[in-house]
Amino acid sequence: MHLYNLTLQGQTAINQAVHGNFSGTPKAQVLCSHEVFGIIRSIMPFRLTGGSKDYIAVGSDSGRIVVLEYSTDKNSFLRVHQETFGKTGCRRIVPGHYLAVDPKGRAIMIGAIERQKLVYIMNRDAEARLTISSPLEAHKQFTLCYGMVGIDVGFENPTFACLEFDYEDAEHDPTGDALQTTKQTLTFYELDLGLNHVVRKYAEPLDDKATMIIAVPGGNEGPSGVILCCENYLIYKNLGEQPDIRCPIPRRRNDLDDPDRSLMIICAATHKTKLLYFFLLQTEQGDLFKAFFLFPTLSFDEDLVTEMKVKYFDTVPAANAMCILKTGFLFVASEFGDHHLYQIANLGDDPEEPEFSSKMHLDEGETFFYGIRELKSLVPIDRIDSLCPFTDAYIGDLAHEDAPQIYALVGRGARSTLRVLRNGLEVSEMAVSELPGNPNAVWTVKKNVDDKHDAYIVVSFINATLVLAIGETVEEANDSGFMATTPTLGCGIIGDDSLLQIYPEGIRHIRSDRRVNEWKTPGKRQIVKCAMNRRQVAVALAGGELVYFELDPTGQLNEFTERTSWPHEVLCMSLSEIPEGELRSRFLTVGIADSTVRVISLDPQDTLSPLSMQALPSQPESLLLLETTSEDNKGSSTIHLNIGLQNGCLLRTTVDNVTGDMMDTRTRYLGTRPVRVFRVRSQNKDAVMCTSSRSWLLYHYQNRFHLTPLSYVTLESASSFSSEQCLEGIVAIAENTLRIMAVEKLGASFNHISYPLKFTPRRMIVHPTATTLMVIETDHAAYTTITLDRKRNDMADDIVRLANDMEEVELAKEIADVLRNNRPDETVYGAAKAAPGKWASAVRLLNIKTGEVLSLFELPQDEAANIALVQFASHQDTLMALVGCTIAQKLDKVAKSTRGCIYTFLLTAAGDRFELIHRTETPRPVNAIHDFRGSALVGMSNHLRLYEFGKKKLLAKCENKLFALRLKNSEEIAAQHLVNGIAKKEILYVSLNIIGKSTYSLTKKFGFQNRKIVVTFRLVQNFPVQITGIQSTGQRIIVTDSQESVHFVRYRKAENQLVIFCDDTTPRYVTTCCVLDYNTVAVGDKFGSISIVSFIHL
User: Fold this and answer.
1) pLDDT bracket for residue 234 (50, 70, 90)
2) Is residue 796 helix, strand or coil?
């Protein structure tokens, strides 16, 4: 068996982000995207002393440190160095998880989670090329690393600071007391450049456990040292006589979070210039704090820092990484959900907002408080779609668009969404205007070759032509010189400032001084097809005759005496644009009714002589010659011939620049209608708009061609469009409308429509006939709406009760009213966090097309849910949604819960509403539900039970329990109790109800009558750990376990038994399962692996 895969969309989650001047140019620009086929664990930029360009150091799962350089010429990353130091894979003792660089670019430290650290010295050779040394070891046994940074020490020996934990004593202490007393350590490593040796310079035990370490700029820009981000505190430390500066992390005022919950910094960004520097620190709630380290935040008294100040800045989504750009922008790579780009409007220097100082006296455990507000210092600029985390999906054409959509559950908490993904580029619609009839073609025309914007939109009808002038508005033009009483076959600018209109009876040449020259077709024959560029015109007359024109230096259009003809009609033609530095295009391509396409020479030496021919599988509908250059506009260009066929296929053929030979043909099916191709502009380059039953855009982006459908109505004709309001757009016709639009987010495979949810979505089910779906949302450490309102009211009552005099009472009432009525937007500020073990869940029914919430049911506090759609045999005309719950589950080392329940909801026939029928208590937590032949299969912990519908509750009909039997040959009868399972002996799994039907009959002492065999047994549960999913195919049931992979189960209706007849021998921590055929399933596990498991009959 071979498993192939195709990546529909690349990873959208961002684990780390860095900023720097990688291209060596001062402006911000889009770089390249490169697939590494691995896991990038860490990245850091560095710059050699005196350099103007940053390099990138990469730590990955390859067991190597890689130094990359961005090449502007090739628009790609170049590998400068690649040094191997360990095995592949994300191993805890193989470096790559942490990277730290010396601020002067002299050395790089790469470290593992445990024990190993390596230091590389960076330098230049005689030709100013980057060199890297052999690794210098800085290992330490029994040491865990929590963070690593490079210290700014100027040009002294490079120094690195690490957060470490020495577990040697705890490792050899069976009581566990040493673990409680062992402290985290801040360790400084120094690289002696003279001796080429790394030493542990200083180590200091920490009273507070730190989660992050931040380097402070030094030299002329700051005091150097580090900031330790601990639980509830920020601590500044430095070598020498510098005392520790300790500042509490402020908390939100009137916060509904669990009061015992600690506060941690999860992300930080540093902004450093010659005049100032500051830090942006982000808490778990998403709040940003600005930390001041120059005046007035840090005061220097004899080179010692005496004070630290922090100030509330703004609130953004919780981030994995943040980058402050020198251009005044903040990029936030969100931990979950979309990534955001903000413009920094101000530096948070409002004097009316409080700032908090380390010198303010507070008792131990106390902190500062602040009030949240709307964005004030940041302005949202852009957003990057992200599908992280992707919890569930459904693929189908529920919107009846003749193309499937992907319905995905994305996000976490209050920022969760239901995403509808459509394969296609997102289109921004600028304007839509109705036309007096159904047009058949559209063009845009400039008045002068040097104009930046188009002057006219020319729309051709079956018997007329409409010319629209482009200005602040688009209006009909009466003085364009175009003939309005005839259809137009082609038009455009010719020469520098003349216009050309080709119509069935001839060619109309409109000079800039309004003089008009006409060429009429001979013998009342009509023009059927045409092609033109700025200096050349070719027309095909009825009957297959070709006439060619060129523009002379005086601006006169001259007909060539040479003509060529074919026995079949000409169906389409194309001329490429004139290459730079040339007088004419060398090739004309012609599509003939005999299902061939021909390349014709336009060279003066052999004008209209055939060069090459290609047979086609169908008659051609349209042709377009397109010349493509590289991203940097350097090197030779490539000519591609795009052929649209009448059978709905698009062919792209490469044409040799010299001989005109056609080669390397690629084919793509686009739709059920004939394919028409049009030249448009995309990112200041030529692109191809293809129209069939669906519209497509073929464009060159990041060194490769992309052919992507448009998420838009079907178009019939298109042309590029440019105006002051829309610099690079497309004008197109669809039925009787004229549309102006712009294509955005090039390179994306999908466009997204988002519908907000309240909690983290877990599972969804789709109604089989209606355009609705049900979503289960569940969050840990969360409050339901009822509980949250009760806590808010209790807090407001406490504020009023604690007031003493009348003035305080009035003030307390105002504060209480604000607290009751002011509900912060949870999508911006996050939801309140409850204590561990608290759960909140909701069942939501949505209309797929509009996103409207049709029904919503919030479960009681502490119930975590999953869902399935069941059609019971006793109610075959109705659909019921079963929602299984785990009650009060504790997420300790092993998830613990002693009970659960099942809610039964009845869906209406239209699928637009549901109502609660009853609630069934279960003795164990419910983890999975599946519709099986008119009954509900329920996975409860590690039990499998079959339920049928009852009037007041669900009725349990069958549960699978097994005996584990161990057979042991012995001369004596002995009893042995099984502990921790059965090992090294033969095990027979025999259903309790069919023990008597086994090969041997059992005696009362559980021994066999015909052999002296003692049977020791233990009643065990269905499945080893916990059921995570249930699938079925026919009579066969597939059950997945959280640690023990897949089990195949059969239901014996006559005996009313569930019997396991096969299981996987390899342990897999299965999270999802998909049935491929009767014997094969695909499973995904929690470690990101996909496996194909097949049942084989021996």
Assistant:
1) very high
2) helix
- Contact assessment for residue 782 and residue 758, using Cβ atoms and an 8 Å cutoff: no
Strand order in the sheet with 55-60: 40-46, 55-60, 64-71, 76-84
761-766 and 772-780 strand pairing = antiparallel
| pLDDT one-digit tens code per residue, 760-788 | 999 999 998 888 999 999 999 999 999 99
Mean pLDDT of the 351-364 span: 86
The CA-atom distances, in angstroms, between 933 and each of 764, 948, 1032 are: 21, 10, 9
- Domain 521-669 falls in which CATH fold? Methylamine Dehydrogenase; Chain H (2.130.10)
CA–CA separation, 458 and 468 (whole Å): 6
Report the half-sphere exposure of 987 (CA within 13 A, side-chain side).
13
Quote the strand ranges of 871-1011, DSSP E: 879-887, 890-891, 895-896, 900-907, 914-922, 926-932, 935-940, 943-948, 955-959, 962-969, 987-991
Among the listed residues 677, 713, 708, the one whose alpha carbon sits nearest the alpha carbon of residue 693 = 713
d(CA 572, CA 570): 6
Rg (CA), the chain: 36
Name the helix (H) or strand (E) containing 791. helix 785-801
pLDDT reported for residue 361? 82
Please state, in angstroms and rounded to a whole number, the distance separating the CA atoms of residues 375 and 332: 14
CATH number among 1.20.1260, 1.10.730, 2.40.10, 3.40.630, domain 1023-1049+1064-1098: 2.40.10
Write down the pLDDT at residue 62. Answer: 93
Q: What CA–CA distance (Å, rounded) separates 733 from 720? A: 12
Record the tokens describing residue 722, joined without a space: 């440019």
Query: Which residues of the chain form CATH 2.130.10.10?
Result: 1-21+32-206, 521-669
Token pair for 965: 């039997």
Exposure string (b/e) for 452-485, b if CB count within 10 Å is 16 or more?
ebbbbbbbbbeebbbbbbbeeebeebeebbbbee
Cis-peptide, bond into residue 824, ω within 30° of zero: no
Q: Is the pLDDT of residue 1014 over 50?
A: no
Beta pairing, strands 914-922 & 926-932: unpaired
- Cβ atoms of 291 and 271 closer than 8 Å: no
Question: How confident is the model over 1051-1092, as pLDDT tens digits?
Answer: 998 888 888 888 898 999 999 999 999 999 999 999 888 999
Among 882, 930, 881, CA closest to 1033: 930
| Entry pTM | 0.86
Of the listed ranges 125-129, 624-628, 783-787, 1008-1012, the least confidently predicted one is 1008-1012
Report d(CA 563, CA 547) in Å as an integer. 6
Complete DSSP assignment for 133-193 = ---EE---TTEEEEEEEEE--TTSS-EEEEEEEE-HHHHT-TTSHHHHH--EEEEEEEEET
Q: Is the peptide bond before 296 cis (omega within 30 degrees of 0)?
A: yes
Given a contact cutoff of 8 angstroms between Cβ atoms, the answer to whether 1049 and 1035 are in contact is no
What local confidence, expressed as pLDDT, does residue 993 receive? Answer: 32
